[in-house]
Every structure is written in structure tokens, then in C-alpha cells.
Amino acid sequence: MKRLITVSAGVGAVAALVAGCGSSSGKASNPPPSSSSAPAASSALHAQSSKYGQILVDGSGRTLYLLTADTSSQSTCYSACAGVWHPDTTTGPPASSGVTASMVGTTARTDNTTQVTYNGHPLYTYTGDAKSGDVNGQGIATFGGIWYVVGIDGKAVTSAPSGSSSSGGGSNY
User: Fold this and answer.
1) For residue 142, what are the CA distances in angstroms to 40, 57, 69, 148?
2) What angle do CA 164, 167, 173 make, to 5 degrees?
3) Considering the entire predicted model, what is its pTM?
4) What is the DSSP letter of 151?
5) pLDDT tens figures, 115-138
6) Taking phi first (over 0 means left), then psi (-120 to 50 degrees means alpha), and beta for anything else, what does residue 11 get?
7) Is-contact 65 127, C-beta < 8 A?
8) Helices then strands, each counted (H, E), the chain
9) Checking CA distances to 152, which of 51, 63, 76, 124 falls within 20 to 30 Å?
10) C-alpha distance from residue 122 to each of 12, 54, 66, 127, 133 (Å)
11) Element holding 67 (H helix, E strand)
12) Residue 22's pLDDT band (boundaries 50, 70, 90)?
């Protein structure tokens, strides 16, 4: 029985390594171990209330962002960029809850991983978000574009938070 457990753990570790492979620089796109590092959990999309209205989060409640430099479903975020803005990757069809299922998709990355998309936008988490509900990456201009939280309508939330829901402030990035 001990051998079976070891084999199972080994398969899980291999799956995690394959799903998290990044560039050959060693600074890959793997999130730190203390954050959401399980591909299956992070690839589940959910709606969550925030100061920006209803936004997309991953299965661990981490805020999902889009990059305005991504003008199609193909990601432009690799190497140093992916070390700060982790692509939301999956090893199978992404699950969803409280979002429009027809907007959920995937795209192949050049590092042989599969990234989750929503309304055609590749999705990312930000290393500066320490816990569920953080939105510290909102409006940051870096790596060739601006990073915005993604509303459940699939658009970038570009407006400042207000006292009421700001779900109508998206743009078509």
C-alpha cells in the first residue's frame, strides 16, 4: 500500500510540474507554494463581489486580470512578465460558477501549457495579491499594457470603485 501512495503522489507531482512549466529561465510561471498552485483548483472561474463590482476570481478566490497588450486570445506575457502575472492555466476544461459558461475557454501558450480565457481574454493572477479578495494589480501599467480586473461581463473594469456596483464600467480590451 505504501508503494501505491508513493506512485499516486508521484503522478500528482508530475502533473503539477507539467501544468506549471514556464520558460527555461527558472523563473517560470509557477505561483509561490503558499498561493494557489494546484492547476485544477485555480482553473475554476467564479464571480465574486469586490469594490469594483462583480469580478472574476479563480477557484482559490484570487482575482483574475487581463492585459491590454493581449489583443487576441494569445498571451503576450512570458518570462519576467509571467513571473509577476501568473497565467491561469488548466489541464482540462475549466469549470465555472456564476459566470457565463459560453465565455469560458482556453488558449495554447508557447510554453506548452493551456491558459484559461474569458470572453477571449487570457487570464492572470497577480503576485502582489496576497489573499483572496485582493485587487492590488488593478490599473498597473507594465509589460506593454495595463492590467485590469475582469468583470463577469468579460470586459476590463477600467473605472474607479464607487459606492455602488461598477459592473458597467468595462471596456472591450
Assistant:
1) 28, 21, 10, 11
2) 145
3) 0.71
4) B
5) 999 999 999 999 999 999 999 999
6) alpha
7) no
8) 3, 14
9) 76
10) 25, 18, 6, 17, 20
11) strand 65-67
12) very low
* Residues 36, 60 contacting (CB under 8 angstroms): yes
| DSSP bridge partners of 107 | 115
Please give the grid coordinates belonging to residue 87: 497565467
The residues with which 50 forms a beta bridge, in sequence order, are 53
The grid coordinates listed for 124 are 492572470
Cα 137 to the chain's mean position, in Å? 12
Contact 67, 84 (CB under 8 A): no
CA distances from 49 to 18, 61, 84, 117, 165 (A): 32, 11, 24, 20, 9
Contact indicator for 62, 123 with CB cutoff of 8 Å: no
Cell of 93: 476544461
pLDDT of 94 strictly over 90: no
Average pLDDT, the chain: 76
> What is the residue whose three cell numbers read 503558499?
34
